[in-house]
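Hi everyone,

Forwarding the result from last night's run.
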Amino acid sequence: MTHWFHRNPLKATAPVPFNYYGVVTGPAASKICSDLRSSRARLLELFTDLNCNPQMMKNAADSYFSLLQGFINSLDESTQESKLRYIQNFKWTDTLQAQVPSITEDEAKEVHRSLKIAAGIFKHLKESHIPKLITPAEKGRDLEARLIEAYIIQCQAEAQEVTIARAIELKHAPGLIAALAYETANFYQKADHALSSLEPAYSAKWRKYLHLKMCFYTAYAYCYHGQTLLASDKCGEAIRSLQEAEKFYAKAEALCKEYGETKGPGPTVKPSGHLFFRKLGNVVKNTLEKCQRENGFIYFQKVPTEAPQLELKANYGLVEPVPFEFPPTSVHWTPETLAAFDLTQRPKDDSAKPKPEEVVKPVKEPDIKPQKDTGCYIS
């Protein structure tokens, strides 16, 4: 079972001890710092735990962020920021400068929902938190608008891939599958466009992936649109649509090879080795041959020189990000707890002395060995 979705490396982060000597003046504040240390450590452990499931990740994230809320927002639920808002700096690596495999129906639903939640988290950060940064994100960094937009759209596109696979397994109408594939191809094109002005040295690999997926789902759209045309006795147009599908499938194959040869962040996945990819080639070939036979025996229609314009709209199945909100502030945050943090006792930052650049170690991601590829079935 080869991997299907391209992923940049996991972001690594420098340790945060939450030790505020002099500032912490009471046991309540000390407990908050201790709980923050342990909950953050637990959350980071789960990123590379192969036994972690979405509920475990959500519980750990809620536990950590409910405690962190006291450092961000005022406890009186006003729009004011916490007095501790700027007490701690966090350091992360950048991902550029870090499957739909054979899965069960329940797993497919989990993948679909997780990707929609991820899109919602990226969208929430983009709209509600990134604009509040005191230092704007540098060009090409993870919090920069173009990258965040690409992540949002890619999550939507990949979630829609699960919808398409399910529609094919359930033998839904070719017109619906064509429309979903067309919308998905457009998503990948938009994500690629968002990255188009970035430095190719670190964006080329990601963009190759987005481009090959755009071509692949455009081929899907033309293939199933051709089936719809044939069912309407428009055999000549169907042949031209299938020819276009053949062309885009060949482009996708070529891009898979280029993607594999392109250097850049993230492990290299092998979509062209996936049964879901190879099956489309057979479907295009067999459907085109069927159309050509029937046109030679029954329809005798002229094949247009221009490919049909795809103006397809899916009636349902389109993916929208799941709205995200941080968990409520932990009950351990009380006015007394906040008062136990005395910022007047904070050590002064001696900016005159140069500080050594802190090195953030990369995340050691689990080595998931490819299993036998049994295809993109959702049973």
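The mean pLDDT is 86.

Cheers,
N.
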